[in-house]
TrEMBL record:
Enzyme Commission code: 3.5.1.1
Residues binding substrate, per UniProt: 54, 86-87
Protein family: Belongs to the asparaginase 1 family.
The reaction(s) this protein catalyses: L-asparagine + H2O = L-aspartate + NH4(+)
Protein name: asparaginase
Taxon lineage: Bacteria, Bacillati, Bacillota, Bacilli, Lactobacillales
Length: 321
């Protein structure tokens, strides 16, 4: 019988709907005592590490989760399940994905409906995550996200709807597997990536979204000694209005790394267009194209890269991977 460490962090999966319709945090997580659902099949070791809404999640708390999982490597644990609020679940999952070695399955899940709502999805998602963490097929696939019968990689999954139970999707590539009758079925392999075992998460990295008619004002606001990096969610395949270029050149001259992703929900950022503000021009300036990540995940990747002590060349390779 396998042993699964369950780390509860809070979120909608642990909340309840009140008489006025508002959803609020409970003093005690209703999932704390669900061991009987897998009795005789799985040994659950349950720890309520946090009890917070996911907008309260921070990089420091993500690092605490990482360190707790690393301690579990020596505790005869076969896998880890993390319950998490959905607003920032993808960011926590991706942080763990690029900072943890692939030693045991790590699976995140959550819920779109609170624990006492009609049609609540939390308990079902939780049990599905447990079966995924128990599966021998889950080894070596990095951190996984299990929601609504689907298995996604932390690298590409994202929340796509504010309330729908099928909110978590993997644009462009799709899920890598599914859950059916307590079994996992994987249809895709996961591309290996570099892992950075960082000990700190310092640094100020900002995400700025591009729009029609944009000038350099927002970039000038973050052109200061406190800024360690910038992520731009650019237009289309990776383009910007020409009025932004002088401000970007000033930032690059101060060796502030600038990472570019697309603001589109599908596809990858590429240097295709050769005009003023086009991707070809931006790449020649020294802006780093991150292929396939969204803005929040590119921010996490840049922070992890900076805290791993990479030099400029290594940082470019890491962010372009």
């Amino acid at each position: 019988m396998k042993t699964i460490l369950v780390l509860h962090t809070g979120g909608t999966i642990s909340m309840s709907k009140e008489a006025d319709g508002n959803v609020t945090t409970n003093n005690m997580n209703p999932l704390l005592n669900q061991e009987e659902l897998v009795a005789g099949k799985v040994n659950l070791v349950v720890e309520p590490i946090f009890n917070i809404p996911s907008p309260h999640m921070t990089l420091e708390r993500m690092l605490e989760l990482k360190q707790r999982i690393q301690r579990a490597y020596t505790e005869n644990v076969d896998g880890v399940v993390i319950t998490h609020g959905t607003d920032t679940l993808e960011e926590t999952a991706y942080f763990l994905d690029i900072t943890l070695e692939n030693k045991i399955p790590v699976v995140l899940t959550g819920a779109m409906r609170s624990s006492n709502e009609i049609g609540t999805d939390g308990l079902y998602n939780f049990i599905s995550a447990v079966w995924t963490a128990c599966s021998d097929e889950s080894y070596g696939k990095g951190v996984l996200v299990v929601m609504n019968d689907e298995i996604h990689t932390a690298r590409y999954v994202t929340k796509t709807h504010t309330t729908n139970v099928a909110t978590f999707r993997t644009p462009t590539f799709g899920p890598i597997g599914m859950i059916a009758k307590e079994r996992t079925f994987f249809a895709s392999e996961v591309r290996p990536q570099e892992v950075c075992d960082i000990k700190k998460v310092t640094g100020e990295v900002y995400v700025i979204k591009a729009y029609a008619g944009m000038d350099g004002s927002l970039f000038d606001l973050v052109d200061n000694e406190q800024t360690d990096g910038i992520v731009i969610e650019a237009l289309g395949a990776g383009n910007l209005p020409p009025e932004t270029l002088p401000a970007l050149e000033r930032l690059l001259a101060r060796n502030i790394p600038i990472v570019l992703v697309s603001r589109c929900s599908n596809g990858i950022a590429e240097d295709i267009y050769d005009y003023q503000g086009g991707g070809v021009n931006l790449k020649k300036m020294g802006i780093i194209f991150s292929r396939g990540l969204n803005g929040p995940k590119a921010r996490i990747r840049l922070i992890v890269g900076l805290n791993s002590g990479k030099n400029s060349s290594e940082l470019i390779d890491f962010l372009s991977e």
